[in-house]
Design brief:
The complex is a heterodimer of chains A (635) and B (344).
Chain A: E1 12-15, E2 18-26, H1 31-45, E3 48-54, E4 69-77, E5 90-93, H2 96-102, E6 111-115, H3 121-126, E7 143-147, H4 149-156, H5 164-168, H6 171-182, H7 188-197, H8 202-221, E8 227-230, E9 239-245, H9 246-261, E10 265-269, H10 276-283, E11 291-294, H11 298-310, E12 314-319, H12 321-337, E13 341-347, H13 364-369, E14 378-380, H14 387-402, E15 406-411, H15 412-416, E16 418-422, E17 468-470, H16 485-500, E18 511-512, E19 517-524, H17 528-540, E20 545-550, E21 552-554, H18 560-564, E22 567-574, H19 579-588, E23 593-596, H20 605-615, H21 628-632
Parallel strand pairs in A: 1-8, 2-5, 5-6, 6-7, 10-11, 10-12, 12-13, 13-15, 14-15, 19-20, 19-22, 22-23
Antiparallel strand pairs in A: 2-4, 3-4, 9-16, 14-21, 18-20
Helix pairs in contact in A: 1-6, 1-7, 4-8, 6-8, 9-10, 9-14, 11-12, 17-20
Chain B: H1 36-46, E1 57-61, H2 69-72, E2 76-79, H3 85-95, E3 100-106, H4 107-113, H5 115-124, E4 129-134, H6 169-175, E5 180-185, H7 189-201, E6 206-211, H8 223-226, H9 228-234, E7 235-238, E8 245-246, E9 252-257, E10 260-264, H10 284-289, E11 299-306, H11 312-326, H12 331-335, E12 340-343
Parallel strand pairs in B: 1-2, 1-3, 3-4, 4-6, 5-6, 7-11
Antiparallel strand pairs in B: 5-11, 8-9, 9-10
Helix pairs in contact in B: 1-7, 3-11, 4-5
The chains are: A alpha/beta (635), B alpha/beta (344).
Amino acid sequence: MTTETPVLPERLVEELDRVTIRFAGDSGDGMQLTGTQFTKTTAVFGNDLATLPDYPAEIRAPTGSLPGVSGFQLSFASSDIRTPGDAPDVLVAMNPAAVKTNVNDLRPGGLLIVDEDEFNSGNLKKAAYASNPLEDGSLAKWQVIKVRITRQNEMALEGLPLNTAQKFKSRNFYALGLILWLYGRSMDTTVKWAQERFGRMPDQLEANLRALRAGYNFGDTTELFRVRYDVPPADVPPGDYRHISGNEATALGFLAASVQSGLPLFYASYPITPASDVLHELSKLRNFGVKTMQAEDEIAAIGAAIGAAYGGHLGLTGTSGPGLALKSEALNLAVMTELPLVVIDVQRAGPSTGMPTKTEQSDLLQAMFGRNGDSPVAIVAPATPTECFTMAVEAFRIALKHMVPVIYLSDGYLGNGSEPWRIPKLADLPKVAYHYAAQDADFSPYRRDAETLARPWAVPGQKGLEHRIGGLEKSGATGDISYDPENHHKMTLARAEKVARIVNDIPLLEVLGPETGDLLVLSWGGTYGATTTAAERARRAGKSVASAHLRYLNPFPANLETVLRSYKRVLIPELNNGQLSLLIRGKFMVDAVGLNKISGQPFKIAEVEGKIDEMLGLTGPYHLQFGPAATLGGG
Amino acid sequence: MTAPTSNGSLISDLPVLTRKDFVSDQEVRWCPGCGDYSILAQMQKMLPSLKIPRENLVFISGIGCSSRFPYYVESYGFHSIHGRALTIASGLKSARPELTVFVVTGDGDGLSIGGNHLLHAMRRNVDLNVILFNNRIYGLTKGQFSPTSEFGKVTKSSPYGTTEQPLNPIRIALAAGATFVARSIDRDTKHLEETLYQAAQHKGISFVEVYQNCNIFNDGAFAAFAEKEVRQDRMLYLEHGKPLRFGKNMEHGIRLNGFTPEVVLNAESDDGLLIHDIYNPTPALANILVGMDYPEFPVPAGIFRSVTAPTFDELLQKQVDDAVAKGAGKFEDVLYSGETWTVS
């Protein structure tokens, strides 16, 4: 018997601390799936990681076109990381349009893996290439690996009862297999997932698994790759882990608030990018008593949530910026009636419809002030995808204790981004307490708690507490309609003071770095990873730079002013045109300087570093760079 | 750990109540002579017959003269914002199906700014009792035309007359699939009280249009057919299972000519007259009746339609109950869903 054992080339295994990969292709090429599967495998392997899905708003833009390019970036490392990476080390591009829109982000010398078969004249034309970049030398600063993915995938699938178009759909599994091989990862996680996902479609399952293995084996047998990379597991705290996205963590956090308080959760929402996943997740949880309602519009959604809050349940609604604008009148009703409502805003690039699938932090001022009258609400903002869980619990803890609407400001980057999550122990979760009004004779709807100024929560069904509330100003003494001048003055101050007193119930602002120094980097929301890492790198280079990250935007933590005044200068990087800066300057008269990026993309660490150096006087004025292709990327 | 699925334990025992128990301590501030007084009085008279504890009754309103209603009823009340009463009521009823929820709205609140919510509450069949006070005018804002004002109406905001056609609220309700649809009138107190009672008894959404006179800005809007002296000749009181008859001695009738109704003056026999059927699963007959208006026809009042269908709130509750019966959710299981790994 003669056997043919392939003679494997001797291959170098290079150990790396961190790798950033971007998968890019047509929105129909399944790049989000490829990215997600690689992420899961990498998470299970034990790397720390962060992801950035970047997809077009069009579900199916014309195939091969520039606006139709969809991307998924992930960074994984053997150490603790906080961002999905600045410049990718590897770009997997499934067609010319994906090269065009993404290659300028690839670090010089980085690996560009392309599906050579897709570089035909039609696709080149759609990508506005005058000549084939694989042949004209324009890609010389990168290591280009040309793989005939389409053809090889087709060959691997020979004999399956699928037509060419159906076979074409397995290309992403081929690419995934190749990358799994390149980083020495097992196919097990993907095989298991595919068996569940395609269990009822045996031909498709077989096609995808064959494609996956073909890609993996191609890496193993070809000599195209001189090096294979190894990124050892990260050194993370012991515990049970899973991989989770920000929107999933948001949904689970609000479920946790229900579990911890013992009150049923009622979620009403109108579908809107990028918040819809929260509705999808919560809709599955009927066995926890969670009721969800897909309302006829944004206003109906918040109205229904107010109804549930009035009824003594956890009233929750969720949306993105345009939806928050529609909800503002009803939100003001919750302010006036002092009900414990929580509003999720997964922010996206505005104004108006803006760029629905791109991230931004530009709803802060809308959350603070976007209502008629003096209308304070509490505002919290998670810093990372996994923190979406804890801040959701916080939102209801505050709403219920202080009888106040709370806006929870997530964003598209946090919501769609994902990272490994150390699963919390139930015993470690904060208690979420609520109190219905005491059923005694001297009940009055606006008799306030001496400490918090919260009014009593009297819910229908409580005998003897029948009363009327509404949007008209009420007498603080009797709860009846009142146009009394002094009463309105006092009630307005009471509503403000009630929110201000939440300060006694939230943690102090934590500072990383020196307690005093040259520069404080102050950030909030989803920019945490980039700003914190940039400040850390500056300190490592011997610079006097501290960072602090706000998770409570209204009220601010008690020590914020002291922190601000402990540094010569203050830098506020924000993905908006200076909204936190305006609040800080207005409230504390501190001459804060903004780094404002409004491109729909998160900060790169290097961008914040550039501004830090400028403010320390180490360089001249820092200007953000927008690569022409990169800004087109994703449509 | 699981969350409770309802607050059923809050509900107390049944009391015996009278009209006075539903009169709140608030001073009623409608204009003297307003039709709203009658609707409030009939409601307060009717409520004890429901035998529902006061604390389980909730009145929710939007904005407008009618929307002051909750202040005057001794129960739980929520005077919300313009057009949105149904959204709050839908959320409350869905969260707490054991409550009885009334929505008080007007032609502006319910059909103009809140029109969308009316359609969707009806198609969902949320178990709410919606009372729409139709005075065909904006009263609280002092006299602009409303979506039910007649074509060409001269008002403060239409000095040259309106250039738009009115909506018929009953037609909207039927089109949106409301399971209980009725019309009454402020002046006919007995009929109004009975109609409110039937609406409250109905499981599912009930929609009652009440012709209500605004004696300040639109006085006499319904006088031509609703005044006591002419009412019998110019209104058609719908009664289930009976032929459609009107007139002082019920001498006239209504029959169909093809798809078109026609008046039969002095119809001696019931033969050929339409027989009213509120339980008919198809709204065909109701849709014909709704097109009848004065002066061509007598104006129909009473129940147009009353059919049974599962309600939104009970279906939602059932999904919860069924899911919990199959196995109440364990939070740990959700936390650990998907692939997990242990770092030691």
